Amino acid sequence: MKHINTILVANRGEIASRIFRTCKQMGITSVAVYTDADKNAPYVQEADLAIHIGDSEPAASYLNQNKIIAAAKQVNADAIHPGYGFLSENPDFAERCSKEDIIFIGPNVEAIRAMGSKAEAKSIMEKAKVPTIPGYKGKDQSTQTLKAEALRIGFPLLLKATYGGGGKGMRIVHKEEELDNAITSSKREAMNAFGNDDLMVEKYIASGRHIEFQVFGDQHGNVIHILERECTIQRRYQKVVEESPSPVLTQELRERMGDVAVAAVKALNYDNAGTVEFIFDETTNDFFFLEVNTRLQVEHPVTEEITGLDLVKMQIESATGMPFQVQQEDIKGNGYAIEVRVYAEDAENNFAPVNGTVHMLRYPEVEGLRVESAIRTGSEISMHYDPMIAKIIVHDSNRNSAIAKLNYVLKNTICQGTRTNLAFLQTIIENEDFIAGKYDTHFIENNIDLTAIATLNQQDKEELAIVATLYNWQQREEQRTKLRAIPSGWRNNFYEHQKEAVVINDEEITVNYRYLEDHFEVIINDEKRISEIINCSEDSIRLSTNGLQKTFAICVKDDLTYIHTPSIGNVEVTLLDRFPIKEKAKEKGGYTSPMPSKIIKLLVATGDVVKENDPLIVISSMKMESTIMADEDGIIEEIFVEEGQNVQVDHLLLKINSK
Question: What are the residue boundaries of the Biotin carboxylation domain, all occurrences included (predicted)?
């Protein structure tokens, strides 16, 4: 049996932090690698050692095998843990580690190679009599062949990267005229994410549930499954909510699917952590093989919470040659666990990723709460990587209790400085169909009104306007050094009110107020309120308004005031200057970047004639591609960017003359 003293984690963010934690518990030295963008990231500080590996672009750093191997040798690392994503399912990297006498903490190279190709994995499953979805997985990857196979299979169909996962390189195609663009963009995204642009074409199962089984093997031929996770609720083909046990599986069906999952990977001599994913048709109780992920999953904490196992520890032990310490009959589920992924993204804008600084991040103290995150107060959300802020996991005795507890956690999570999907997640778990366990892969599009996610009623907006105004008053009061005996904002006309104008969700609200001995008289839209500051600190204020007391978390940066209270959530408030600078008019016919992005491809040139809905520019942000489309007919007048350029939000990309 091999011995491991030092592990280098060839990854970043929350999964690196997660692995470091187990390393410390096992007495193993942990080593981080980091890029220019991650130099000050919290996970770097959590490792015992950290090595700089270069530029922020993944291809030049986290995907660069030479740099990872060199870093491991620099510190005499016995082993490399790849985490998930990046090099975690790259058989060439696993083989390289073996040749360099470095233990790769994952399954054997042959298993990774076989399952790394979704096409080969599907062939293996077919030979093992595992039901698979009809489709094409051939080596001929010409556009002509892919189109012909697509027409044979019929619509709707799914294009997906043969090598990869996480929704990268995946497109649903509903009609023939969408095929060319879908194939081109899928191939480009797959190449960018996985270094290979091979695609599979499959019949798209429009209504189903995504259920996966955690499997585990050791180097002595033993394979077990560690129950299931339901991952049906997704956006942009990426999981949003994960739970276990699945609310739809009977014990008989759970055992049958688990047996199939174990049999499938036993044929591979599987010897570490992995996941067998199925699409499940609830109406017929049929299930079809989707893929095998030969790595630790993002959602592994769900399994850990209901079983009490440390899957990272099991990975390390298995990599050293240690036989299983548990048997299949020992695996029992205890209670219920649910995980949601908190992202820096704009749910109303097709989940567009956003970046910036997290000025305040704080979670409530709740029994059964587990948070996996490498983002802290002051962290930067970089455009170069996935915009995940945290995984919030709640464990309780039953599903209803866990959902209720999770709802409380989401309401009381303070994340100020960047837009997040917290309100979106709350909308999901408050939905009656979700609570009843009735959902499929189209749950979000069929049940959630994304346009209403950030909607505030008038009472909420006026409440926030009062909070921002009185907090600002209190801060001015504390900063005054002269005439402190006279109240701030004193007027020689007693009846004249002070005024503050704020903007909340694009609505301007004027707050009229005056200080009367120990309270404020506040008037908004002719409605009078009596407010009193109970206490106030730099980052919070407690107000009593018409007798109702509430605490509000506050963070002020320049003219922006970020306010949080559980009943409303996290909101950005702008205090208007009394002498505002005139805003620059928007360029007529101009197209701007909707998010911080990299210009992947220019699809037009100056002078080109374009029609409405023609593709103009392909951009990439946080590993996901988007296409800027023309919203009118016209002629390309000028292009202001070039391929490979990084741009910030609202950067002018091009201009169309619509005359």
Answer: 3-449
| CB-based contacts of 99, cutoff 8 Å, min separation 6 | none
The sign of the torsion formed by the CA atoms of 416, 10, 91, 225 equals: negative
Name the burial class of residue 361, with classes exposed (0-12), middle (13-18) and buried (19+) by CB atoms within 10 angstroms of its CB. Answer: buried
The CATH number of the structural domain formed by 458-575 is: 3.30.700.30
d(CA 58, CA 35): 9
Q: Yes or no: say if 513 and 520 are a contact pair by the CB < 8 Å rule.
A: yes
Q: Give the integer Cα–Cα distance in Å for 384 and 101.
A: 32
Residue 201 tokens, joined: 């074409």
| 281 confidence band (pLDDT: 50, 70, 90) | confident
If one looks up domain 6-105 in CATH, what number appears? 3.40.50.20
Rounded Cα distance between 196 and 523, Å, is 62
Q: Which of 226, 216, 227 has its CA nearest to residue 318?
A: 216
Give me the residues paired with residue 370 across strands: 393
CATH 3.40.50.20 range(s) for the chain read 6-105
Model pLDDT for residues 98-120, shown as the tens digit of each residue: 999 999 999 999 999 998 777 78
Rounded CA separation 553/281 (Å): 45
335 phi-psi bin (left φ>0, alpha ψ -120 to 50, beta other): left
Place of tokens 């109780």: 285
Domain at 209-449, CATH class: alpha beta
Domain with CATH 3.30.470.20 in the chain: 209-449
The Cα–Cα gap between 434 and 443 comes to 9
pLDDT in tens, 188-209: 888 887 888 999 999 888 779 9
Peptide bond between residue 245 and the one before it cis (omega within 30 degrees of 0): yes
pTM score, whole prediction:
0.83
Fold for the domain defined by 590-657: OB fold (Dihydrolipoamide Acetyltransferase, E2P) (2.40.50)
* Spatial CB neighbours of 496, under 8 Å, sequence gap ≥ 6: 514
- Residue range(s) of every CATH 2.40.50.100 domain in the chain: 590-657
* DSSP letter, residue 78: S
Report the Cα–Cα distance between both ends of the chain, in Å, rounded.
75
Active site annotation includes 236: no
Q: What does the pLDDT read at residue 492?
A: 47
Delimiting residues of CATH 3.30.1490.20 domain(s) in the chain = 134-203
- What's the mean per-residue pLDDT of the chain? 91
Contacts of 310 (CB under 8 A, 6+ apart): 22, 25, 304
- Exactly one of 229, 254, 295, 341 is catalytic; which is it? 295
Dist CA 311 CA 35 (whole Å): 27
pLDDT for 482: 47
- State the Cα angle at 315 between 397 and 32, rounded to 5°: 105
**Tokens 């120990």, located at residue:** 518
Fold of 134-203: Dna Ligase; domain 1 (3.30.1490)
Tokens representing 331 are 């695996």
CA distance 192 to 623: 8
In the block, residue with structure tokens 């002051």: 378
pLDDT at 453 over 60: yes
Q: Which residue has the tokens 């009110």?
A: 497
Kind of pairing between the strands at 590-592 and 597-602 = unpaired
User: Is the pLDDT higher at 406 or at 484?
Assistant: 406
Q: Is 452 helix (H, G, I), strand (E, B) or coil?
A: helix
